[in-house]
Write a sequence for this structure.
């Protein structure tokens, strides 16, 4: 039951990279929310292969077909299902990894788990391609949040390899990266990040990074300790994205180095409105939202598919062997992953927000 | 439904800091597992107030009473319920925080969420005291894992304030901290960490830190992508512990700075046994365990209760005011939190392991 | 995870008949609901042994102790936990059933399931005694429903053995049985029902029956097809009560004999208010409430504990043997079960009602 | 979240009667189970419109297209998704029911619930057509059960209107109805049942009925009290099928009229094998399977779509009006519903069986 998520808003993701189609069923949406499909398409485009720096040359239209749940341009309130056809497969690229698993991939663990019955082509259900339906669900959640409480979600890249940028920890309204370019508001840092990606690519290697996402306008008082919080829900979701190895909120791992007197977010009335003087907590105290912007970071490992020679094993002959992985690879998955992370934040916020009616019956 | 967790093993935590009792119901344990209550007591003792460096002087026996689920020293397989009586409350210490919320605490968000109906004494259900029943559940999960697959769980502190220690990233069998002392195997670093805590205390301040936990002997092939993984389950659980702001696995946020060629864990046969050459993935590929040690890090903010003067608001008069928080505080929660994090790892491992029977029916 | 129920309102029931205590944790209640503990006690009293015709002479005070979740007489919104001490055990009565299982009891299936590790005394976790915490949760749910939407829940007995009474199918406001007497509004039928119980008792036998429950004032438009309906939720809950073998709604199994033209509930405006002309559907169309009274029936088998000689097996010697069951038995469980069924209806209504906020965000 | 079901095996059903497609995602299947698609197609055919006595003349090929989860003829273990295209819609037939709701249909409750945003064409997501994906999931579950423990599922009709047939209560291996004909093993009763349907049809009316399903070969010791039982799971599922008003097990509502001495299923060794002398319990004691055949009954109301004149209201003008429902109707849904009920039993059995690994870790 691993590909189903949510306490109230249930999403059920299906598909294999080289099967007929991938998609998602979203169950539990409120009815009557107008869905702007062009905005959804724009989100999908941000993740689509071939459009981002360092991304795989595989091109897929990635146009979702709505099968149910939208009628007259609005959500019906019954399950919203979509499919995305797979059209550009090169399955022959992927033969053999069942026997000589790629380092850093799920080839070996999938074999342990599924006893060679899973579809290995293109990574099957483990493929990063499966983040497209997650993103679709997230894009819908964004529109619901915007409609219901004016919440907006932003994201940028704060690290690629050795190049680091400022967090939005001190910001209340993010300096939004110019659309259509690399999602880092400081152009000079953005250029250096792109340089890291190019360098990795030139060496037939890959590079990791960190994204940061922010939600503005999310109401305070939402969530329930201990495990019905945006933090728990988002972390659970985000660790379902391939290559994610860390999740943090507000000042993240930095808080460990601080004193309480530095880290505590003081309350104050400013212009007769209550707020926190700082936002080290990333919008939460005790797991419940406090009205400040929600802020989270997600760390991605370098994409494991590199065409440099690597060491692995032959599981049949039980020998140590060397492997070179041909085919299409992303030198850096981070730019394409950013909208998926934003979508996961939207899903987590919406699922926990939907619980509000339980306690304010 | 925030205080209930688990897909298969359900834990339901109850209680308020200054109510009659706190406790937990654990539903779904296998039957016939011998429970060594002295080992459980030892775990509880590691978290009990007053026994750890920098901890609050509040002392509680914290002895759990088993109400059901253990018979003749073994789990019955029906719900295991315990209660821990609250005996040493000083409720008067906590009056007033409903009006002048403490910075960094849930006083304000709880007010938004519960409309002043929650029990504010000692933080009520938000209190760190509620980690005692979570730890109890974790201590039981440890014994089940040990019994069923020989899994052992270890933990140490890798950061207190500015003092950092080595991760177990390169270790396969942790250098275990000597029992009964500060949980850091390098004594000189341990002393410096204690110094950080003492310094904070002397300044009526507090300090944060990072713990790292490892599970050895956990079988490979366990878990299902995307969200039925130990990573998702552990992250969800850990963010339910008060003061946690970050969770990571394996090399954690470090992976973001690396190239794929550095970070990929190569496979090899060594002494005819398959293993990974390194463990940057922390025991997982694609969310499924690979047989290597499970490794995770959790970042804690400095405990927000400090007796130094802080700024906050009076919610009734709508004025900005100053506050000094009297009472018993931990200068550093990290040592007491470590066994709770270990317990959360045990719970996550067990819950996901219990799913194995679903696919190997 | 069998003893945990609920999508939004989670209840987790624990305890064994002859262990230290039984109880329940109720997670997810709205905050600020005044709880009248004397009304709860009255409900508990309706189920308590020794107070109902034909019930076991075992007497238990059955007074629940609140451990958390109620503060200043109102729900806090955090988990409500209670315990009921077991005080009047005669464990020696129950030895031997592990070897010679009682017909109609769970002795044999429990042995298959728990491999002799479960607590067999008094039926352990299978005991009808465990309906006391379910009833407690139901009594709380009744008060929340009453407070939030004026919903009231009623119940009566419509069959004991061969004696049948009218359903409330044609009623909109039930003719309430006089308090404190047998819950059947027709006194002459009630007397004959009591006669059935007395007859069974005289023969050291037992007898089954059917209860019917009704909720008035429950709003229309609540629930979601297919499985987030009061029907699904109530059926799931009710089959968790020992001895239940059938659940139906509205006209129940009678609908199978009817034509559509007889059975369809026509809509009409009456005094400018929309209603159904009849209530064969029991308050639902398509699983969603329609504003009519909610009506359900639950069939109970005769309690299997009878002191007449019965045939069974000795599982050790593998011989067919005869058994006589000494001890305290209910000749008819139905009167004591009625408040539990009412409570289950309250829980189902509340859980589904709590979902309303999800779609009317 | 109403259209998602299951504790371990998650099914997520989507679609509207007249939208592009309907379908289901099945998450959590074991891997490596050979799927005989021709057997699945045969099951689908049993439900398909136009092939059963008294069924609607709407014809749909109802051929499911597998989108993921089957590879090389076997389950992959990752989500199995299918779609069934809608090809034969007559949407104009259904206009107007939003204003003048059909008695016995969800038109009015859907309007309350979805505020006129749901797709009303053909009943939208409420349509009986949505049982096709449930049946698909059930047909897969049947094959998994057969493969894993030899379990077979049978079904027959035991009531149509006034005509009743014998239950399989006394049978251990059902007298299987001859394939391809009306599912009632007594041909003379079957003819009279068909007569009931014809009579109803001739009067432009409809008629209800009861189906009974049996599973043989299901192992004992499966399930956990209170709510992780086949009884709870099946009841929850079955009440999600449109028109179901009652669910019972074993002797069902008959047990209410019995004495304990008549009803208790005695244990005995027969040919050195343990069994029950009778099967009034329908295969369960205490919610746990006992190795006897699983037996359940489900009552269906007469299909509400009849072309006779009926009374209803105009919700806009607030007047009482008369309505005649044109279009294609089933005079009796029961024969087409039978395979769906069998499928629900298979799903319930499989979901609970999958829990076995949790306790026999």
């Amino acid at each position: 039951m691993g590909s189903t998520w949510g306490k109230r808003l249930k999403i059920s993701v299906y598909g294999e990279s080289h099967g007929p189609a991938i998609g998602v069923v979203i169950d539990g949406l409120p009815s009557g929310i107008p869905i702007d499909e062009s905005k959804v398409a724009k989100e999908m485009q941000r993740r689509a292969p071939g459009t981002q720096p360092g991304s795989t040359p595989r091109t897929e239209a990635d146009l979702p077909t709505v099968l149910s749940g939208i009628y007259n341009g609005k959500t019906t309130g019954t399950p919203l299902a979509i499919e995305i056809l797979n059209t550009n497969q090169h399955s022959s690229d992927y033969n053999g990894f069942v026997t000589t698993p790629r380092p850093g991939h799920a080839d070996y663990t999938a074999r342990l788990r599924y006893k060679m019955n899973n579809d290995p082509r293109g990574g099957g259900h483990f493929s990063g391609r499966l983040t497209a339906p997650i993103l679709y669900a997230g894009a819908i959640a964004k529109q619901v949040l915007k409609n219901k409480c004016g919440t907006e979600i932003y994201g940028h890249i704060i690290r690629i390899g050795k190049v680091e940028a400022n967090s939005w920890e001190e910001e209340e309204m993010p300096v939004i990266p110019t659309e259509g370019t690399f999602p880092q508001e400081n152009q000079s840092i953005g250029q250096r990040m792109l340089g890291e990606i190019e360098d990795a690519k030139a060496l037939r290697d890959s590079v990791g990074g960190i994204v940061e996402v922010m939600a503005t306008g999310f109401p305070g008082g939402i969530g329930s300790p201990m495990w019905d919080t945006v933090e728990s829900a988002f972390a659970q979701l985000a660790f379902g994205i391939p290559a994610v190895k860390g999740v943090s909120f507000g000042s993240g791992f930095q808080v460990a180095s601080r004193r309480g007197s530095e880290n505590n977010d003081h309350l104050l009335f400013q212009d007769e409105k209550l707020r926190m003087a700082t936002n080290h907590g990333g919008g939460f105290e005790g797991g419940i939202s406090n009205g400040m912007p929600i802020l989270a970071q997600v760390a991605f490992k370098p994409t494991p598919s590199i065409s440099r020679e690597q060491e692995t094993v032959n599981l049949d002959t039980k020998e140590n062997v060397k492997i070179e992985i041909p085919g299409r690879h992303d030198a850096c998955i981070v730019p394409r992953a950013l909208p998926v992370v934003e979508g996961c934040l939207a899903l987590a916020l919406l699922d926990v927000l939907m619980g509000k009616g339980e306690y304010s019956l």
Observations:
- The longest helix of chain A spans residues 334-354.
